Structure formats: C-alpha cells, structure tokens
Amino acid sequence: MHPFTSLMLWGWLALTTLLLPLGYTLLICSASLFALLLILPDTRHRWRYVVWFMVPMGLGLWLVHSGWLAHWLNGTPLNQQRMPMATALWLKLLAIISSAQIWLEKVPTRQFVRALFSSRLPISFAYVLAGPLLIVEQLRQQLHTIRDAQLARGIPLDGNWHQRLKAIPALLLPLTSNAINELAIRGAALDMKAFRTNAHRTTLWAPPDSRLQQIIRYALLLLCFIQIGGYFWWLP
Questions:
Q1: Residues contacting 221, CB < 8 A, separation 6+
Q2: Which of 17, 42, 179, 190 could be cross-linked to 95 through a Cys-Cys bond (beta carbons 3.0 to 4.6 Å apart)?
Q3: What are 3-7's contacts with CB under 8 Å, separation 24+?
Q4: pLDDT category, 78, cuts 50, 70, 90?
C-alpha cells in the first residue's frame, strides 16, 4: 500500500473516532486498536509509548475534570459533570495514538520520504515535511557523540534523575549549535542540486502507486468532509 493511502486511512479513522460520542462504540474502537497494537508482533514494542502518554494524560484529566484539583486548592465543592467529556477525550486519544503507532511501524521513514519527493507536491513543501525525517538519524548520532563527550568531562548524565535533569542543557546546547551551523551547508547542497529549478522532482525508488489507490485517497478525503459537515449539521 502506498504511504499516502495508509496515511489517509489513518486520518479518516482518527476523524471518525473524534466524532464518536461516549458509548460502547467508542470504547470498543479504542480497546480494539490498542489490542491490535499488542497483537501484531512488529508493533508490540510500541505499547510503552502509548502507556507513557496515556497514563499521565488520564491522571491530569481526572484531576482537572473531576473537580478534585479545585477542591484541594480552593475548597470548591466537587463537580463531576465534566467527567464523561474527559473520559470520551481519553478514549479518543487512546484510539488515535494507538493507530498512529501502528502506522509509524508499518510505514518505514525512507519509504514515506520517497513518496513525498515523488508526489505532485511542490518540492519546497515536500522538503519541509521530509526535512525533519531526514535529519533524525543524524541528530541521533550527534546526540550520542555529545553524550559520550560530556560523560568523559564528568557531567552526570547517567546519575540520578535530578542530576540528569540538570544536565539536559549540556546535551541540548551543543546539539542546537551544531544544527544551526549546518544550515549553511545544507542550503549550499540544495542549491548545488538545483533545488528550485524544477517544479516537481522524482526519485528512482518511488513507492508503487495505482489509480485505484488515488481514487481511494480522494474518496476518503471526500468522506472526511462529509462526516465533518454531517456532524455540524446534526449538532444540537
């Protein structure tokens, strides 16, 4: 499947989940997507990202919308009328993030970047979208090198949590400085490649696409607009 088709499917699923009211349908959808994340062998390791995000999010929503935070701070009487809304929001986020983790695992970064460069998008816009993905690995390597250098200098990057927290600037400042210094080099490399000469560029390893998948993408986009319009039309 083309990366844009799978991305459009995820977008339609996310939008459909956002429009669902609190009920058994939303509960089954959220639980099914998280269960699918756990069942698939290649996506199973990503459950930690979902849990690390959803558990603090759930605690925060409970504290704010259950009224306990205002009760502890100001002595305000408990008012849990907004708890159904917070529960629905938490379930929607669970479904969206779980499905996003599945998409991220199933679509390699290299394939998505090739799809961007071989698409009909303007090359400048495509590079804006693909640029962060292209430099992630380089930033990871630079961060590893900076970490080793700072450890050699005696900075406690492997100490207690408060020591690591205080040492974060020792990692971020050199990393940011290196990234800024490379801007001129990257700009010169793009000029050498005639970055703005042609309106559209392609790649030798463009992901296979078909007319059917293009029709599916446009149909899903149209369906999203219909769902949004129907939601606001029937909104009380």
A1: 8
A2: 17
A3: 3/107, 3/111, 3/112, 3/115, 3/207, 4/115, 4/119, 4/209, 4/213, 4/217, 5/213, 5/216, 5/217, 6/103, 6/106, 6/107, 7/103, 7/107
A4: low
User: Strand runs (DSSP E) across 40-119, as ranges?
Assistant: none
* Angstrom distance (rounded) from CA 221 to CA 215: 10
The most confident of 24-33, 56-65, 134-143, 157-166, by mean pLDDT: 24-33
Confidence of residue 193 (pLDDT cuts 50, 70, 90): low
- List the structure tokens of 168: 């974060």
Distance CA 147, CA 155 (A): 9
| CA–CA–CA angle 163, 165, 170 (5° rounding) | 90
For 192, phi then psi, to 5°, come to: -65, -30
| Residue 211, token pair as written in the block | 């007319």
CB 96 within 8 A of CB 11: no
Return d(Cα 218, Cα 37) in angstroms, integer. 27
79: enclosing H helix or E strand:
none
The answer to whether the beta carbons of residues 147 and 155 sit under 8 Å apart is no
C-alpha to C-alpha distance for 71 and 67, rounded to whole angstroms: 6
pTM: 0.73
DSSP-derived 3-state class of residue 77: coil
